[in-house]
Write a structure and sequence with these properties.
This protein is mainly beta and 170 residues long. It is 6% helix and 44% strand. It has one helix at residues 153-163; strands at residues 2-4, 6-17, 23-27, 38-43, 48-54, 62-66, 76-84, 91-96, 99-104, 111-113, 118-120, 138-147. The strands form three sheets. The protein has a five-stranded antiparallel sheet. A five-stranded antiparallel sheet has the order 6-5-4-3-11, with no helix packed on it. A hairpin with a 7-residue loop joins β5 and β6 (62-66). The N and C termini lie far apart (36 Å). The model has no long low-confidence stretch (mean pLDDT 94).
Length: 170
């Protein structure tokens, strides 16, 4: 267990129905979120998405960047959240379809990193509670990837352009 200073989470998503705090790509499996490192997820229940980056200590202690737009149901979107917490250019950036949607500056020099599992399509591998379920995503997810390095805008756009024509077959 330790910390990480950079990373990127990427996924193609297609929303069937909005669900509050739906996990898209989530690192952490503990029901109390004590091992959560990051979560690319829905935010609210109107199509907004965001990246949550957990600080090294505490639970529910994180930086986040939320989309400025609400994603529409029944449309493919390429999401990329990338961050670098050290150096002269510190950033957290959220891209949608190859374009920067929102950004922020990290409040810490490193984020939580550990050997916890990565869950795709929900925040938890089992039901959290009868009321909240497992924070599941209702739709399709393709091409989910996690990297231990940050991406620049050119890399994000190249990844989007490489696969944008394939969504009709997914």
């Amino acid at each position: 267990d330790g910390t990480a200073t950079a990373g990127t989470v990427e996924a193609w998503i297609w929303i069937r129905n909005y669900t509050d705090t739906a996990g898209i790509v989530h690192k952490g499996t503990a029901l109390d979120f004590s091992d959560e490192c990051f979560s690319l997820q829905g935010w609210g229940s109107k199509g907004q998405v965001g990246i949550i980056l957990d600080k090294p200590t505490g639970t529910n202690n994180y930086d986040s960047v939320l989309s400025k737009v609400n994603l529409k149901k029944g449309t493919w979107y390429h999401l990329v959240a990338t961050w670098s917490a050290t150096g002269a250019s510190r950033f957290i950036r959220l891209y949608i379809n190859g374009k920067l949607d929102n950004s922020a500056t990290p409040s810490v020099s490193a984020y939580r990193a550990n050997a916890s599992g990565i869950v795709i399509g929900s925040q938890l591998p089992v039901e959290y509670s009868a009321q909240y379920g497992y924070f599941g995503f209702d739709g399709k997810i393709a091409g989910a990837n996690v990297y231990e390095t940050s991406w620049d805008a050119a890399t994000v756009l190249a990844e989007y352009n490489a696969d944008k024509g394939k969504t009709a077959y997914w």
